[in-house]
Design goal:
This protein has 848 residues and is α+β, with helices and mostly antiparallel strands. The protein is built from 13 helices and 37 strands. The chain has a 16-stranded antiparallel beta sheet with strand order 18-19-20-21-22-25-26-27-28-29-30-33-34-35-36-37, with no helix packed on it. Strands 1-4-5-2-3 form a five-stranded mixed beta sheet. Strand 35 and strand 36 form a beta hairpin. The chain is globular, with a radius of gyration of 39 Å. It starts with a helix and ends in a 7-residue tail after the last strand.
């Protein structure tokens, strides 16, 4: 056996050889009482550190593993282990351990360390400014962070991954540094801060030259490539998809290919080989070898464990028969949570079976046939225990709770959860893309807690505009507070800047261009009148004045008198509306009724009506029945909305005994008489991902109770253009038809009494950020107007097509820009431009 003295001496020498070059045990201090040839046990009296500038000595002591009072042998492996532990932390460029002094059985040790340099700044070389901002966020380097080997490797990995994800497969990154003597007070430049220089050589983007497919018989190569949504060849026609090669995209697209085969019954289809190889410095080829396998059919389906519903009921709900092709995706969607809630799982969960489990098992696969066994665990029905809301910093809890269909004590129903989520999105107060519902079931008690997570978004709107035209200033100021609170008006603490949170809507708007035109209107809506039922009350008042620009009064001999040259039209009105949510046929239906009164006063004003002096009264009652189950307001993907409405004035001609054959227009229209029907419908179909098809139709008819009264010149339809131009002084409805001049698609300048319009829009979002929702669209639409019912032909329309963009800003609402190209020429307007640019404002402006 080796002598103990020689063994310890050898061990110390070995440690000195294997430890990193700058970590060492140094002989120093009081060594007169230490015999390195004869190891001796000491009591550690003190451990100190010298050279630290920012690291805590107590933490370093813990990292070393040495503590006062420990028994250590010198020389021995405890001191070597302590240096090794400190070095492995990567915090130092040099470590020395010295013996300060020895007092009898006590030894005093000191670590003399040299901390690694700290980063005071960094620069990128070979990187664009936009990429620098993204990399700064990903790297997250803070000033004065210690520059370690790990941090260097981390930065290189992050930078390389960033550019590889953007198609630069050959990216190489190197890091150098220089001393930042300008930012340090230390005289020793070796211990000054350092400035990192991150040098990036991106190389060229690596794109896919070709995708070769072998082994496919069912689908042609083109169909296989079409199934690959994110892995595309470099071709001119692939303008909407990048052709860069990303392994994760290839892996995802290979799964899509297999799913395509499984959708046709090829259960065993697999990609048995994929090969990616370089064909040039910036191009790769991809070879795929497919094993299609055989086509499978469903032979039998047996249900086990079901007591709530019979096997016949479940088989009918499933809708799959013996001999049907085994489509895996369709099969699973009929079992688990499909979008239409027609699956087996939804059937149970809509009856409280939250703990329901369904396990389809292939019990036998023979030749091309599969026998399934549906193993069901029904569990117990779950009762809702608590409902909580998180994230509503502005909207009061009761506003949210009254829209939620899941209440404590109710039976859990999946359809109620989905409906609640839809109602919260439709409020417009929250970001619909981030609304979450988190059920927290407790199987032991048979209860479930439901947590709704919302994210407030700004939804108040400001309209402020001004311009100069025709030697006059035109200005508009309007505000809409869509989550107002009247009960907090007297509470000073609630004004931030206005009292809000109760879901009421207050709108105030003023528009003027001086003497020529002024308009003022205000409205208020309480959506839950009384707070117990979703019955809404809407009040509105408005007043407008249009004139020839001459002052109302003038001075004659210093006396203020009415100005005879003044011509004007004044309209004053008010409305009261009441809405209620119906329960039948379902609670998506709403009934709205409104009484509206307008008073027209004309003073030498002949440019709009058939008479210049006098007045007219428009008292009408409007009733509308609507149904709306779209999933959200701003960018709906699913659902539909429809509305049928009727507006009626009293039939004065039936009981006033007037002779309408010889009567002035002033007398004829003293009390306006008409009835008006409208029908509109809009469907949203999610085609793929966020690509949505919106189909809209609209019809309108303005009629009279008796032919002797003549057609009403009020409330008529004007079609064409953006729907933005024109004053609705006579109750006219200005309807958009892109690609045509404003109000050009009608026989006369007084509008039309019949209208039809059809629109198809393909929409795709650019950004669904709640602070700026942006989507592009392509449209095709057509419409026409008629004055007599016998001329009405719903298929005789003037068509247009084009593209556009919509931007929703919470502060300003929905803004739109469209380029429309007309396909037809309206009689008498051959000089109309073939294409037009249209600007629009609002969700429903320009619609029927």
């Amino acid at each position: 056996m080796m002598n103990p003295i020689l063994r310890n001496t050898f061990f110390v020498l070995l440690l000195l050889l294997v430890l990193p070059a700058k970590a060492q045990i140094a002989i120093g201090g009081d060594t007169s009482k230490v015999n390195y040839q004869s190891p001796k046990e000491y009591t550690l009296a003190k451990v100190d550190f010298e050279g630290t500038t920012s690291l805590d000595k107590n933490i370093l002591k813990l990292l070393s593993g040495l503590s006062e009072g420990d028994k250590i042998t010198i020389p021995g492996d405890q001191t070597a282990d302590a240096i090794d532990k400190l070095w492995n932390e990567g915090l130092f460029d040099d470590i020395k351990l010295v013996i300060e002094k020895v007092e009898g059985e006590y030894v005093f040790l000191k670590f003399i360390v040299e901390e690694k340099r700290r980063i005071t700044g960094k620069t990128f070389v070979g990187v664009k400014k936009s990429d620098q901002d993204d990399l700064d966020e990903k790297i997250g380097i803070v000033r004065n962070r210690m520059y370690t080997d790990y941090l260097k490797a981390y930065i290189i990995q992050v930078v390389n991954d960033y550019f590889i994800d953007n198609g630069y497969r050959n990216c190489q990154t190197n890091i150098t540094y220089e001393f930042d003597t300008a930012r340090t007070k230390l005289k020793d430049t070796l211990r000054s801060g350092i400035l990192l220089k991150i040098i990036v050589n991106k190389g060229e983007k690596v794109k896919i030259r070709d995708i070769n497919v072998d082994g496919n018989k069912l689908f042609r190569d083109m169909r296989i490539r079409m199934a690959m949504k994110d892995t595309k060849r470099k071709r001119i026609y692939n303008i909407f998809k990048a052709s860069k090669y990303l392994p994760e995209n290839l892996s995802k697209d290979e799964q899509a290919i297999v799913a395509k085969y499984q959708g046709k019954g090829y259960r065993d289809a697999a990609i048995v080989k994929d090969c990616v190889y370089v064909v040039s410095p910036n191009r790769v080829n991809i070879d795929l070898v497919i094993n299609e396998g055989r086509r499978y059919y469903i032979r039998s389906i047996n249900w086990i464990g079901n007591t709530k519903y019979s096997s016949e009921e479940l088989s009918k709900r499933l809708g799959i028969k013996r001999g049907d092709v085994y489509d895996k995706d369709d099969f699973e969607s009929r079992l688990f949570m499909n979008a239409n809630s027609t699956d087996i799982t939804s059937l149970y969960m809509d009856d409280g079976y939250l703990f329901f489990q369904l396990n389809p098992v292939e019990v036998r696969v023979e030749n091309d046939s599969i026998d399934f066994e549906m193993r069901i665990y029904e569990g117990r029905q779950a009762i809702i225990r608590n409902v909580t809301i998180i994230g509503n910093s502005k909207t009061n809890d009761h506003v949210i709770m009254r829209e939620i269909r899941t209440r404590p004590g109710y039976l859990f129903r999946r359809s109620d959860v989905i409906r609640s989520q839809r109602e919260l999105a439709s409020l417009g107060y929250f970001n619909p893309e981030t609304i979450q519902v988190n059920p927290k079931p407790d199987a032991a008690t048979g209860t479930v807690d439901i947590e709704y997570v919302v994210e407030e978004r700004p939804n108040d709107q400001l309209e402020l505009s001004g311009g100069w035209g025709a030697n006059r200033i035109v200005g508009t100021l309007g505000v809409s507070f869509n989550n107002f609170s009247t009960k907090n008006i007297t509470n000073p603490d609630a004004w931030r800047p206005l009292p809000s949170g109760d879901g009421q809507r207050l709108s105030i708007r003023a528009q003027s261009n001086g003497l020529f035109y002024q308009s003022y209107n205000a409205s208020f809506t309480e959506p839950w009148l009384g707070g117990r039922k979703p019955n809404s009350l809407t009040l509105g008042v408005y007043h407008s004045v249009q004139s020839n620009g001459v002052a109302k009064y003038t001075k004659v001999d210093g006396v203020k008198v009415p100005n005879d040259a003044r011509q004007d039209l004044k309209i004053t009105g008010a409305s009261v509306g009441f809405g209620m949510r119906l329960k039948k046929p379902d609670d998506f239906f709403q009934l709205y009724q409104e009484v509206n009164y307008q008073y027209y006063q004309l003073n030498k004003f002949s440019s709009v009506f058939s008479f210049a002096n006098g007045f007219a009264n428009n008292l009408s009652y409007r009733i509308s029945l609507s149904r709306d189950n779209t999933d959200q307001q701003i960018y709906p993907r699913r659902g539909a909305s429809m509305r049928i409405s009727g507006q009626f004035t009293p039939p004065y001609s039936l009981f006033n005994n007037k002779d309408y054959t010889d009567i002035t227009d002033q007398e004829r229209y003293k009390w306006l008489e008409y009835y008006k029907w409208k029908f509109t419908s809009s469907w949203f179909t999610q085609l793929a991902g966020n690509l949505v098809l919106n189909t809209r139709v609209g019809f309108g008819y303005l009629g009279t109770y008796q032919s002797k009264t003549g057609a009403s010149p009020f409330e008529r339809f004007y079609l064409g253009g953006s729907g933005l131009t024109g004053f609705a002084l006579d109750g006219r409805e200005i309807i958009a038809l892109r690609g045509y001049d404003d109000q050009s698609v009608q026989e006369s300048r007084t509008g039309a009494s019949i209208i039809s319009k059809y629109t198809f829009e393909l929409r795709y979002p650019v950004s669904l950020n709640p602070s700026a929702t942006v989507y592009g669209l392509a449209f095709a639409e057509g419409g026409n107007t008629w004055n007599r019912f016998r001329d009405f032909n719903p298929f005789d329309v003037y068509r247009s097509t084009g593209v556009g963009v919509r931007v929703f800003l919470p502060m300003f609402g929905l803004l739109g820009l469209d380029w429309g190209y007309r396909l037809d020429t309206y009689p008498g307007r051959s000089g109309m431009q073939r294409s037009q640019i249209h600007f629009t404002i609002g969700l429903n402006l320009g619609e029927l």
